[in-house]
């Protein structure tokens, strides 16, 4: 075991306590997306009740230390659409523009699906949202959700699989194993359908390694299928556009969906929480930490001290310095 297990940890939970002490705090939510921009940890959208999808943008200011009972919340300009189960990533070209991609995008203050765009652009310096023009957009991506995007150093966004979810919208429910690629330097969209065998995957985590490999952990096959085996790890090489699978060794980790993952400096992927599926609903919700070593492809369970976070699924996690910051969730 390496020394990385001195992980300091704190959760920002759905506490009513915060509402009592201060009004300028976000209400409890789940299914939001998050992106770290410098010292600001942004959260986009989310569900605040079974029927309300918000277009709120909040950030935590991490520029100085704080008491976790009073996290330094700030609200930012709201998004043009409400969004849940979407994904967001930061432009490496300017380190300040965030792209919000997919999810169940809804017309603000309605339950109606928004068909305006599947991608929105947020200029975090000027608090400005715009709708980019995308060349060759593939309309089959419309209403795609429950997936996680990564962006490489050249500005290529890779979004694997996901599902087009119907609910009260007129969209057919289909789960995918395609790779959607948006090059933010040209705004050209392309879809790579698989010539190799690749499992359909929904509600997984995606982690880009410095080597250019994207590591997909956990997830499920489709709305009715069972969980994908968390020890069978699908890997996409962003240099050669090829897939491979690693059978992870080490500890037995329960397969799951809607967990979170972060990458440490020394190449370990730390996952937290998530859940099993009971028919179509959330089953057992996890509160464990597991570590995947991406050199040996072995899972391990670290010894963690301090007060743990509660069971969480559909939450966010980002890594800032030595802190894995968990926020919101179900
Ligand atoms: C953090 O805030 C709580 C509640 O106000 C307080 O009880 C606690 O002492 C504070 N902790 C530190 C380290 O200041
Ligand atoms: C963006 O951030 C990365 C990582 O911190 C850094 O290597 C890069 O130089 C930054 N680029 C710009 C344009 O600031
Ligand atoms: C939302 O959908 C309903 C039912 O189709 C429609 O009557 C209503 O006008 C829509 N509202 C907006 C703001 O599009
Ligand atoms: C149904 O979906 C299509 C896009 O696939 C959209 O253009 C249309 O407005 C939707 N209709 C309703 C009633 O929501
Ligand atoms: C659009 O995406 C669908 C679903 O992955 C795929 O079957 C189709 O080939 C794509 N179209 C283009 C033009 O890439
Ligand atoms: C999951 O994959 C691991 C690693 O290959 C294997 O040992 C295990 O039996 C698999 N679990 C199931 C339920 O198939
Ligand atoms: C699945 O959900 C049903 C209905 O809510 C419940 O009765 C059952 O105990 C659940 N099973 C598991 C394994 O959680
Ligand atoms: C965790 O602690 C137990 C008992 O102190 C020890 O046996 C085990 O090896 C430790 N595990 C790790 C991963 O350090």
TrEMBL record:
This is Galactose oxidase. Gene3D superfamilies: Kelch-type beta propeller. InterPro entries: Kelch-typ_b-propeller. Keywords: Kelch repeat, Membrane, Repeat, Transmembrane, Transmembrane helix. The keyword Isomerase does not apply. The chain crosses the membrane at residues 6-25. PANTHER family: ACYL-COA-BINDING DOMAIN-CONTAINING PROTEIN 5, FIBRONECTIN TYPE-III DOMAIN-CONTAINING PROTEIN. The keyword Zinc-finger does not apply. Pfam families: Kelch_KLHDC2_KLHL20_DRC7. Coiled coil: none annotated.
């Amino acid at each position: 075991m390496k020394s990385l297990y001195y992980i300091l940890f704190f959760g920002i939970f759905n506490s009513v306590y915060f509402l009592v002490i201060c009004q300028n705090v976000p209400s409890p939510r789940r299914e939001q997306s998050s992106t770290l921009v410098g010292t600001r940890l942004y959260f986009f959208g989310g569900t605040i009740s079974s029927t309300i999808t918000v277009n709120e943008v909040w950030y935590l200011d991490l520029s100085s230390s704080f008491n976790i009972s009073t996290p330094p919340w700030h609200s930012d300009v709201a998004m043009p659409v409400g969004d849940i189960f979407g994904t967001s990533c930061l432009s490496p070209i300017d380190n300040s523009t965030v792209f919000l991609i997919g999810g169940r995008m809804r017309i603000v203050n309605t339950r109606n699906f928004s068909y305006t765009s599947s991608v929105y652009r947020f200029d975090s310096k000027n608090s400005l949202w715009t709708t980019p023009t995308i060349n060759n957009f593939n309309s089959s991506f419309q209403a795609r959700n429950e997936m996680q995007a990564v962006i490489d150093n050249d500005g290529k966004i890779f979004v694997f699989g996901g599902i087009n979810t119907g609910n009260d919208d007129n969209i057919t429910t289909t789960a995918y194993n395609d790779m959607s690629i948006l090059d933010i330097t040209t705004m050209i969209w392309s879809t790579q359908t698989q010539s190799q065998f690749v499992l359909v995957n929904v509600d997984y985590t995606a982690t880009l390694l410095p080597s250019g490999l994207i590591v997909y952990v956990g997830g499920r096959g489709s709305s009715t299928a069972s969980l994908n085996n968390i020890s069978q790890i699908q890997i996409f090489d962003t240099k050669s556009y090829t897939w491979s699978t690693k059978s992870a060794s080490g500890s037995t980790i329960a397969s799951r969906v809607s967990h979170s993952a972060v990458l440490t400096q020394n190449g370990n992927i730390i996952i937290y929480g998530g859940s099993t599926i009971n028919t179509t609903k959330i089953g057992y919700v996890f509160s464990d930490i597991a570590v995947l070593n991406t050199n040996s492809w072995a899972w391990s369970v670290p010894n963690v001290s301090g007060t743990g976070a509660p069971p969480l699924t559909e939450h966010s996690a980002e890594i800032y310095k030595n802190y894995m910051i968990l926020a919101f969730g179900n």
